[in-house]
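G., the chain you wanted modeled:
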Amino acid sequence: MATIPINPDRAKNNSPYIEPGLVYYGSYKNEKPPIQLRIATDGAGQSGLMRALADKFIDDRVIETGCKPFAVSWIKSDTAGSFNNLASGAADLSITYHPAAEAIAAQQGFTDRSVYAWRDHFMLIGPTSNPAKLKPSSTTSIFDLFGQLFRGVVENPAAVRFLSRYDKSATNVKEALIWTTIGQVP
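Predicted structure as tokens:
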């Protein structure tokens, strides 16, 4: 879902220009072909997954279609930023992790489809001293653990802290959903 005005000319130009986090060339790095695809995402770029996918895509397209070599750029942005990059015309495609926001983006008219590609996994971690006294087991749900964590903060606020990214990323949205599901906020 974009939080900026949608650029009606976004398909006609590459404006605004955003400096790529990285540029991928496939097997054609020495040729430095022009960027033909700009992808906005966060974790997939940081993990190296974007590089693997982009390099393979470039090589396959050149071999399969006979097109000229091209480059793919990674525009580093969280989920909210990725939608804004699409709406402004700064990105051609985004990899996001929020189906409801993707549906709203389609309603806003700056995307024409959403394709499920993979699932992100999250972990709840803390110090080995376990000041919140969490009692995880194979049957304990994440909601139960967040409830235990909240009780730990209430019972021992000096020792128990919960750190949130609080940045409107998909991870932060998922975390907020867990908190609201148990009727609490961190």
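The longest strand covers residues 35-41.

Shout if anything looks off.
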